[in-house]
Design brief:
2 domains; four-stranded antiparallel sheet; 14 helices; 17 strands; 33% helix
Length: 402
């Protein structure tokens, strides 16, 4: 019976990533899904369940009044399938397994903003890791709220106040309903501007080590009658960047997570707490790095390229043509604004349309697009990455335990 269950879960995940692979364009690029199959729809369903006890998740959570949401960075379906033996014991305990879609771009900043608000990127305005903030007049790394060459949170000292996330969070709505909501954040991130905006409405609780990422949420959930506890596990993403998502090191990382997550699940089930594990995006093995600073394209840009190395925004002086992509024709695809609704769930508001550029350059295959804001951009030899539109980056799991 256990083998049948595991085989069925594997089939579910294989079929979900196949949905993306069967719907790629001639360049092999897929589109994110929003609504019922997206992180926005999942977030809204989770809010409805905590506030009202209903919604689409009501039949999946066994009536449990307390939920721990674990966001496992980069635990995409392709990573799970590649390290299946490391995940088997955890999956044996799952009640529900199904697939979701990450966002465009497939990056933590955009995915977490979508999860925290239940809104699509076009509505919450968080367009990626490096964002052009017109209010400040610069490209900003949002997770550190800094200039690309500045120290963390340096822009807090700016005389101009910029809002990163333009939508109300589900945590505010849960709190307004009278239910408890906590967000467990690493001590180095807890005073970060991005964290403050993404967690607005939640009570922030700091953690200091890897293991207390999962032990603290259990303590919090055990001491409330009803509510939500959210925590974020970043280690798999870090290891996958350095060694590649299909490496032995990544396998060890997945196995460590699965082991501690299984401990959390067993302890939670005994206390009538449901656990949901999702990812924000997947990862791919990296191909070639393509420098943009010495291309003809740069002559047409008003500001340097920004966004992601696998989905790059361009702000231009004039209309771009194929002639502006000389040297890039076989390596990247130029997307116009008419493509924005399918990528971002809608057409971005005029208020922050500049964050999404005038065009998007998406590398084909496994390539990266590099604009060297710093020497580190050239020195990094990462073996894994994300941000683009490949099925392996978009297809993510939802695992439910109770």
């Amino acid at each position: 019976m256990v083998d049948d269950k595991i085989n069925e879960y594997r089939k579910v995940l294989e079929e979900w990533i196949k949905v993306f692979r069967d719907n790629t364009d001639s360049f092999g690029l897929a589109s994110p899904m929003y609504g019922n199959h997206g992180l926005d729809g999942f977030s809204c369903s989770l809010r409805d369940y905590i506030v009202e006890g209903g919604g689409e998740l009501s039949d999946m959570l066994g009536g449990r009044k307390k939920v721990i949401l674990v966001i496992a960075d980069a635990l995409g379906i392709s990573t799970i399938l590649s390290h299946w033996s490391a995940m088997e014991k955890l999956l044996e305990n799952a009640r529900v397994v199904y697939g979701l879609s990450s966002t465009a771009p497939t990056t933590t900043a955009t995915a977490l903003a979508t999860l925290s608000t239940g809104a699509v990127p076009a509505k919450h305005g968080m367009s990626g890791f490096k964002v052009y903030l017109r209010e400040i007049g610069s490209v900003v790394e949002v997770l550190g709220y800094k200039y690309p060459l500045g120290g963390d949170n340096i822009l807090v000292e700016s005389g101009v106040e910029a809002t990163l996330i333009e939508s109300k969070t589900i945590y505010e709505e849960i709190r307004e309903s009278g239910e408890k909501v906590y967000l467990v954040a690493w001590e180095k991130h807890i005073e970060n501007k991005f964290t403050a905006e993404a967690a607005k409405g939640a009570e922030l609780v700091k953690h200091s080590t890897i293991s207390d990422t999962l032990s603290i949420p259990l303590e919090l959930a055990s001491n409330i009658d009803r509510g939500l506890v959210v925590t974020y596990w970043g280690e798999i993403d870090s290891v996958s960047h350095i060694y590649g998502p299909y490496s032995k090191q990544a396998e060890y990382s997945v196995e460590m997570f699965a082991s501690l997550a299984l401990k959390l699940v067993r302890d939670s089930v005994s206390r009538d707490v449901a656990v949901i594990i999702i990812a924000d995006h997947g990862q791919i093995s990296v191909g070639d790095s393509i420098r943009l600073d010495n291309t003809k394209l740069m002559q047409k840009l008003v500001i340097p390229p920004f966004g992601e190395k696998r989905l790059t925004y361009l702000v231009t002086r004039e209309t771009l043509t194929s002639n502006d992509l000389l040297g890039l024709e076989e390596k990247a695809v130029l997307l116009e604004r008419k493509e924005y609704p399918r990528l971002f769930g809608d057409y971005p508001s005029e208020r922050f349309l500049h964050r999404f550029g005038d065009y998007i350059l998406v590398p084909t295959g496994l390539n990266l697009l590099v604009y060297p804001y710093s020497k580190k951009d050239l020195e990094d030899r990462l073996k894994g990455h994300h941000g683009g539109l490949l099925p392996e980056e978009l297809a993510i799991p939802c695992l439910i335990f109770y």
